[in-house]
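Deliverable D4.2, example record:
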Amino acid sequence: MIPAGPSVAGSSVTGSSAAGSSVAGWKAVVRAVMLGLSTGLLLLVAGLAVVLIVVPKATGSTPLTVLTQSMDPTLPPGTLLVVRPTPVEDIRIGDVVTYQITSGQPAVISHRVVSVASSSDGSRTFTLKGDNNALADPAPVTAAQVRGVVWYSLPDIGLVNQLVNGSRSWLIPAIAGVLLAYGAVMVTIGIVSAARRRRRVAVAGRSLGRRSAGAHRATLG
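Output generated by the structure prediction step:
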C-alpha cells in the first residue's frame, strides 16, 4: 500500500500543473496583446505629434484643415494641409495656394492656381479656382494675401489637427491625466501579479513540504 500514496500525489500535482500552465498561457497572451496595443498607440501618438506639431514648427509651416468641398476629390473635407511659406515668384500654375480672403484677416482659402499675371512694376497676382468649382475665385489674389503653398496633405487627419490645435487648453492636461492613470494601472497590475506569484510559490512550497513529510512518515511506517 505504500507506493499508492506517492502515485496519487503525483497525479494531483500533474493536473494542478496543467491547469496552472493553461492560466499562465492565457495571461501571457493577454499581456502580449496589451503590450502590442500600448506600443501601437504610442507610435500613433508620436507620429501624429511629428506631423501636426514637430514638422510645422521646424519648417515654419502651418497645419490647416479642409472644411469645404471646393477641392473635392483631391482635398476632401477633413484633410490635413501643411502650408509652407513660399516666395510669390516661386508659385506656379497648378500649385495649391492658401490665401487670406481679406488681406490681414485670419480666414483663408486653399485653391489651385490656374493663371498668373505680372504687372509692369514686377508685382504678381494669381487667379485661383477650387477643383470642384465651376468658376474661378471672383478676385485675383495679391502677394500680400498669400500665406503659402500646400506642402503635403493627409486625408482625415485634419480632424485630429482641429482637436489638437483648437483645444490645447484642456487637451494637454487630459492627455497627461490619461498617461498618469495608465502608469498607475500598470504599476498596480505589476504589484498584484508579483504578490500573487509570491503567494503561489509559498503555497506550493508548503504543499510540497507536507507531501514530503507524509511520504517520509509512510516510508517509516
